[in-house]
Structures are given as structure tokens and as C-alpha cells.
Request: fold
Amino acid sequence: MTSAIHRRAFLLTTATGAAAASLPNTTSAVEPKPSGAKFKYGLNTSTIREQKLGIVKEVELASQAGFDGIEPWINQLEQYVRDGGDLKDLHKRISDSGLKVYSAIGFANWVVDDDEKRKAGLEQAKRDMDLVLQIGGTHIAAPPAGATNQTDLNLMKAAERYRALLEVGDAIGIIPQVEVWGFSKSLSRLGETALVATEAQHPRACILPDVYHLYKGGSDFEGVKLLSSHAMHCFHVNDYPADPPRASIADKHRVYPGDGIAPLKQVYHTLAQAGFEGMLSLELFNPTYWAQDAKLVVETGIRKMRESVAKAFA
Reply:
């Protein structure tokens, strides 16, 4: 009798355990809450461009405000050299300030159809990349410069040309990031840019997205979910107002993160879930900010960035 009871108890326990094992594990099925703690904060120097301070002062202000990195424009580096500056000194100044050059902005005509212009564009890219390398940089923007008004750009040819640009970068040690340009008629959408990066068939192919440009070009932010952390190293962050509408909104209407209607919470969560640990680079072209003291602008900019990230993960 006792043996029969024990046997029934054993069978009941086994059956219960098997049933429990077949149920979904609700604890493990819940995704951990993402965090934006691994994001780096960078200053794209366009944000205080019209104060005409020069790259040295911009580095100083970015460091003092608490930025992790800086994203200079090639024409600033060229001007610095013309004025007698030494790029090795600038590299040391940036490093001593605790900053890194996560990206830089150049406009080489690497994607155009004209063979001679494209050849010249690749030579320009070499010079631009060398400047970036000398100040300790690792990446450079590769927007569809020169093809802005072209409506019939062959994306597969563009992919071949992007691969050629990547190979130029391989030789120098700089990675070009094909950039979404929302106002352009070529590579204005995330899907077009992703096709070019994918079909380049190169291990270092990557994309440079921008909150404003994704909106301007008509891309839904859901598309960013299809990109891995390997596909993005820098993400231009900004915000935009409800008015003017998408069709007429321009660079000058960009505002601080959190001051507009952009779905920044969605963007930050998507990046965190992808494992993005690159730089959120504040890129603005707002004449109102340009008229203000640059120190106030950079301090406001990083505060607004941090607040928008903190709010997203609260």
C-alpha cells in the first residue's frame, strides 16, 4: 500500500514537472530593460559653426561641457592647417582634453556617375581621410555629395563605388560611413542607404544615420531596428518641430533633442537593443543657436542630450 502511494506521488510529481517545463518561461521571455548608459556623447562642430571660434576653441568647449567626442568638418581642419596649425598638436590637444574623434564630415564626390569627377572625388577622399587620421580619428561621413539632385542613381553601381571608397579607407586606416541625406534625391532614405552598404560586400561597410535626415527623407524609424551595432558607429542626434511640415522643413529648423516631436525614445531604445556603443553626435544648424554664446550652446546641447536619453529609459 505504502509502495503504491509512493509510486502515485512520484508519477504526479513527474507529470507536474513535465507540464511546468512545457509552459513558456515568462521570466526569461521578458527582455531586460535597455539602458543608454553605453552611449557616447559627441559634438558635431556645425552646432557652433557660425560663432567662428576655430577648431581649437571648439575642442576646449566640448571638453569643458563634458562631451566624450568631437566630430569636426574637413574644411575646419584645412583652415587650421592654412593658419599654420600642426595636426599632430591638434591630435594631442584633443587627446589631452579627454575627447575622441569618432567621426568627421567630408564631401568627396565618390558616388557620382562621371568617371573623372569620381576619380577626383576618391583623391579628395584620400586627402580628407589623411587629415582625420592625423588627429586620431577613425571614421568619416560619406554622403552622396555631387549627386544631390540626381534622381536616377543606380544603387548597385553606388554600392560598387562605396566599396571602392572603403578600399581607399583600408589603405589609410579610416572607415567611410555611407550617410543618409534626407534632402537629397539620391540616398535620401534609410533603405536605399542600407542597400548600398549591404551590396558593397565589404566587412567594414556601415551607415551614418541622422534623426532629422530620416524624417526629412520619409524613412520610418522602425527601419533602424534592422541595423546591428556593427552597422552604426555614429548617429547624428537632433530634433525637429511639427511646423514647418516635412516637405519644407530644412536644416535650420533642427532643435535640441527633446525640444521637438522626433520619436527619440524609440530611437534610443532601438540603439540600446542593438548593442550600439558609438557616439550620439549633436548636429544642429540653427541660426538662433549660432547667435548665442557658444559655451551656452554646447552646455545646453549636452544637457538636453542627457535629459532626453534619461527620459527615454526612465
Observations:
- The radius of gyration is 24 Å.
- The first strand starts at residue 40 and ends at 44.
- The chain has one domain: 38-312.
- Confidence is low (pLDDT under 50) at residues 1-31.
